[in-house]
Amino acid sequence: MHARLRGRGLYVITDGPRPDLLDVVAQAIAGGARLVQYRDKTTDGARRLAETMALQALCARHGVPMIVNDDIELARAAGADGVHLGEDDGDVVAARSALGPQAIIGVSCYDSLERARSLAAAGADYVAFGAFFPSPTKPNAGRAAPELLRQSAALGVPRVAIGGITPDNGGSLIEAGADFLAVISAVFGAPDVQAAAERFARLFPSL
Ligand SMILES: Cc1ncc(COP(=O)(O)OP(=O)(O)O)c(N)n1
Ligand SMILES: Cc1ncsc1CCOP(=O)(O)O
Ligand SMILES: [Mg+2]
């Protein structure tokens, strides 16, 4: 497995500003989440920095890496474990030089094996594909086929699946080769966040 990102499992992504942010992330970790992403599309820099630092401290106490969505500078300022970059969010080389050799740099590859190949070669620590199912969080996201997970096995970096994933449909993506299932609404929109995370964690047979 890749040096900077180990293992497999549930990758939870936060669902925007909420007063109980730390509490629900703690519940997701208690339920078995193995990776956390802070995703907040607001422009409230002070709150975003404070929340990133607080989440980083929480995740570190549990040995779970904490990744910042979109924002290399926020990840650097907060001492986060890494950053997730989509096609409009900056490049892997710039992120590596800002965050250092130990940082986890993840990239969105949508439905493109070619993009995954080139970004893995540029130093990405994981490649994410999706959306695999209709996403309540991002209804206009383009769709990807599970075949991509099989086809990307040879890249040698962990593969993340995202988009409309639930405990009922996630197993098929793990069978196709996903190392991590990245989930927003089916965890953070659930009435019992810990129980929802536990259902996902149980999908990974050897965990
Ligand atoms: C793990 C993971 N995969 C994909 C995305 C989507 O990134 P992006 O395309 O930049 O879209 P936004 O999340 O920024 O709206 C992600 N965040 N995490
Ligand atoms: C950020 C993102 N990129 C593709 S789908 C998606 C949202 C995933 O959220 P959900 O798990 O609620 O479908
Ligand atoms: Mg983005």
TrEMBL record:
Keywords: Magnesium, Metal-binding, Thiamine biosynthesis, Transferase. 2-[(2R,5Z)-2-carboxy-4-methylthiazol-5(2H)-ylidene]ethyl phosphate binds at residues 135-137, 164, 184-185. Mg(2+) binds at residues 70, 89. This is Thiamine-phosphate synthase. It is an enzyme of class 2 (transferase). Its EC number is 2.5.1.3. 4-amino-2-methyl-5-(diphosphooxymethyl)pyrimidine binds at residues 37-41, 69, 108, 138. Condenses 4-methyl-5-(beta-hydroxyethyl)thiazole monophosphate (THZ-P) and 2-methyl-4-amino-5-hydroxymethyl pyrimidine pyrophosphate (HMP-PP) to form thiamine monophosphate (TMP). One of its GO terms (molecular function) is thiamine-phosphate diphosphorylase activity. Pathway: Cofactor biosynthesis; thiamine diphosphate biosynthesis; thiamine phosphate from 4-amino-2-methyl-5-diphosphomethylpyrimidine and 4-methyl-5-(2-phosphoethyl)-thiazole: step 1/1. It comes from the Bacteria. It catalyses: 4-methyl-5-(2-phosphooxyethyl)-thiazole + 4-amino-2-methyl-5-(diphosphooxymethyl)pyrimidine + H(+) = thiamine phosphate + diphosphate; 2-(2-carboxy-4-methylthiazol-5-yl)ethyl phosphate + 4-amino-2-methyl-5-(diphosphooxymethyl)pyrimidine + 2 H(+) = thiamine phosphate + CO2 + diphosphate; 2-[(2R,5Z)-2-carboxy-4-methylthiazol-5(2H)-ylidene]ethyl phosphate + 4-amino-2-methyl-5-(diphosphooxymethyl)pyrimidine + 2 H(+) = thiamine phosphate + CO2 + diphosphate. The keyword Metal-binding applies. Belongs to the thiamine-phosphate synthase family. Pfam families: TMP-TENI. HAMAP family: TMP_synthase. CDD domains: TMP_TenI. Binds 1 Mg(2+) ion per subunit. Its cofactor is Mg(2+). Residues 10-187 form the Thiamine phosphate synthase/TenI domain. SUPFAM superfamilies: Thiamin phosphate synthase. The keyword Glycoprotein does not apply.
